[in-house]
């Protein structure tokens, strides 16, 4: 039935609730903009222009989205298993550190066809190892992985600061601490497109395809079961060790790979801001995308557009700073979380209870 | 002068299960009144209604023949209705004095003042208990005495005690009985919910027996003998003889055996030194009440928990149907996954690594039809199933793969007659096909109808073993389980 | 040496006040069974901005009130979302992100880069009688920030509330939801109160952070302290004394890090900056390890997948569900 009541009661209900929540979220943001004397129409136009207005802008949006999507993809197996991985920020850093260290070493001077995979492997290894800091205590002593992951993030930040000040400091000396420039064979080539898109995009696209396949696999479903009941998952031969360590290592590897892409692609050298918040934002993308590849890509693009677009907003409407993007991210997250909670409740209540 | 508390023609239903039907209960002041019944008879529901934790669907709660509405536990407390629930109602990290302060009108705790009031209440009833240690550090018997003192200090004129002796030893039970009679003598109405006839004989003046939600007997204790009461609790036993079971060869090798097994799970009722064997095609029933260690035994036999001591040998596949159906289902996922769970690794459910949802749905639909699970919708969330249908699904899923061993805990608890009969037929068929069945239950009729052998589990130990034929005569003796002289409950 | 200790104490006292206050608030929240708040970081930032704005407008005390109000709003949001059934982890992360974004945004609207920053009057200081007369060690005690006085005062009041008022006892009782319901306590009400207290205190903590010694706002100025508060409460075993001690400990490490920037203390300065987080991690592991060994469960995973150590009631009654505390994956209390 195409009446409002019919729609509200039918199978489209979850989508309706979600859309309402998202619209509500944007309404809140609009209120914030209006309350601070920003011009809403100008803000929206500025955002559209900044994010997708020119080919360069679109390419930038995609470039921003790439590490977010990568981290989100890597986090989705863990999230499906019920392991909350918040350590991406630190794992990006450690992956970048290891990749940069390998690149600066003689290995980095080898021909690109060898140097690039070495760098990637370094990123993967660095991230995966760091991800064991929350994973092993979770498995052995039930330590809350959120807190331990957050602590590990801050440790990584300090580690980076130390290395950039001492052993990995650029010998050419700059006012701010930064690492040495990576040799050319270790740099990820840029794509012949407008904007600063590296070949990393191709890698991530390939991983999206892999993700689409994996999320329909039996292994993924068994992880869902693990999240509901470890005992039942055990009857399908999935031990807690494999589930927790395996999924966390994957999330660490993905974040570390993103770190490699940052240091060997966009930046070209190790800097203190190599992670720049993409760890946290990546997790948000994973939640917004409900841990599924295609929604993750969409969510990633939206999140990235909030960053690139907000520069456009600031340009056109000086009274509205770029950080409106960050506010929108938070509000959006809340809106989606609310949508999730409301649809779960109704779903359970709606099910027929009696013979 | 206290008023009599009563339930007048009260009914209460949960989903399809009718917990109480037109029940009349009356508790006079100055007397000890026992409410007897098996698990699931409706005793706890009745107590919740009397204590203000629930409201009746029809009928009224009455105080002194006037209908009253008990909208909350707080309202009932104010009317002087004290409750000592089976699992205790004291906040562990607080002391008894602090627990009392929780429900006092005073906003600032005057420790000495409240402490004195509580001490006075305790003393007036002969209770000796530590008032200043956090409750969780006191033993269970002490906690119970503390709850009694608290209830008196709160001005209770009616005391509802739900299975108070299930975790006490003989000496503590005796002490409690003296206290309860003292309370009655002082004009308080004492209501004792129990399944133990021995206790009823010891202190009760009057009794009401509940069976399947209805009053099956009511009157003065002196007017009935044990057999009458037992039959009222258990219900009329069918006179028909159960169908002849194929004889189990004595020499057959047991596929499940526990030898000197000690274990505990998280419900504080451990099993101690269990020796048990089940042979292929045999149905062994283990009868025990709440707190006897059934769950620990079930989980040990099924291999869910590891033994503290002793050995477990199990050959082949083990199916397990736990007491709480939801533990065996996946509430967050669609029903079809709970249905196909055990067979998920089979090749037919995946192609090129990707799951074939249609195959899973087809399998689920087939399972629903075979075991009459309703509604037969594979995409429904599993949390939406009613208890009876959830049970049918779990039983069907576990047994249809013809396991070597099946451990079934409370297989027909909470089910209506038709569903229960369906499950029993299924169990018999499974055993006939060669599965070794371990049936844990509190339902004597079920044990008699299905089992080849019946074991009695009490306080973690096997205290008796009977064949099905012998067991028939032993019913009333089982119901009247006396606590172990000198042994501790847990 | 004593001069070093004096300097250390001085900077520790400054850093401790926000940690203590936010820690007390979080303590109330956790003890009421309402979960744990990952959003303290966001509330600190909003409180800091509110504090600066309030102080610039009407003096430092107005700044504190502004911070309290800002935090109160976030506390209310937490309570409402938790009551709706949202996963508290998600709520916390959202508040952190939204709070950080909102504070940065509003600041940049009011004081865009390029123009002069807002500067606000600071909170006054008071000397500690007696201790301030000591020759060298007396230095940090001569001008103890009001923030710290306030924090200690709040600690004393909190301890009294939890021990000797009916409100406090009921709040503690709300942690054991099922039993509390049997005693007729409206746990929802007390958890709401706890959330409001937690939010308000975190807001004031943020205000103290900004107008205690700094007097201006910088985006993201809290630098991860919000998450450190959670570790403070864990070390402090959710008691008032423990929170104060834990906060002083972490503040001391903070102070060490500051001093290490200007003098050689043996280890690289980054090590001292990392110290609080490493210590928190170690405490988390030790605490959970101790809990696991103490647990009454025999095996790590019994039939339920709960990671808690709560003991299920044996008699299953059909009845209303106890108010859900921590839904979703983080079932039960896996960090306390």
What are the main properties of this structure?
heterotrimer; A: 355 residues; mainly alpha; ABC transporter involved in vitamin B12 uptake, BtuC; 14 helices; C: 336 residues; two-stranded antiparallel ribbon; 2 strands; disordered C terminus
Summarize the model shown.
The complex is a heterotrimer of chains A (355), B (490) and C (336). By secondary structure, chain A is an all-alpha fold. Chain A has helices at residues 4-9, 13-35, 40-53, 55-80, 88-104, 112-141, 145-165, 200-214, 218-228, 230-235, 240-267, 278-288, 293-316, 324-350.
Helices, strands, pairings?
The complex is a heterotrimer of chains A (355), B (490) and C (336).
Chain A: H1 4-9, H2 13-35, H3 40-53, H4 55-80, H5 88-104, H6 112-141, H7 145-165, H8 200-214, H9 218-228, H10 230-235, H11 240-267, H12 278-288, H13 293-316, H14 324-350
Helix pairs in contact in A: 2-14, 3-4, 3-13, 4-8, 4-11, 4-12, 4-13, 5-6, 5-7, 5-11, 5-12, 6-7, 6-11, 12-13, 13-14
Chain B: E1 5-14, E2 17-27, E3 32-36, H1 43-51, E4 58-63, E5 66-68, H2 73-78, E6 81-84, H3 96-101, H4 111-124, H5 140-153, E7 158-162, H6 170-185, E8 189-194, H7 197-203, E9 206-211, E10 214-220, H8 226-234, E11 256-263, E12 271-278, E13 283-287, H9 294-302, E14 309-314, E15 318-321, H10 335-340, E16 350-351, E17 354-355, H11 357-371, H12 387-399, E18 405-409, H13 417-432, E19 436-441, H14 444-450, E20 453-458, E21 461-467, H15 468-479
Parallel strand pairs in B: 3-8, 3-9, 6-7, 7-8, 13-19, 13-20, 15-18, 18-19
Antiparallel strand pairs in B: 1-2, 1-4, 4-5, 9-10, 11-12, 11-14, 16-17, 20-21
Helix pairs in contact in B: 4-5, 11-12, 12-13, 14-15
Chain C: H1 2-31, H2 40-58, H3 60-84, H4 88-110, E1 125-126, H5 139-142, E2 144-145, H6 146-164, H7 166-173, H8 177-182, H9 187-211, H10 225-235, H11 240-262, H12 269-294
Antiparallel strand pairs in C: 1-2
Helix pairs in contact in C: 1-6, 1-9, 1-10, 1-11, 2-3, 2-4, 2-9, 2-10, 3-4, 3-9, 6-7, 7-9, 10-11, 10-12, 11-12
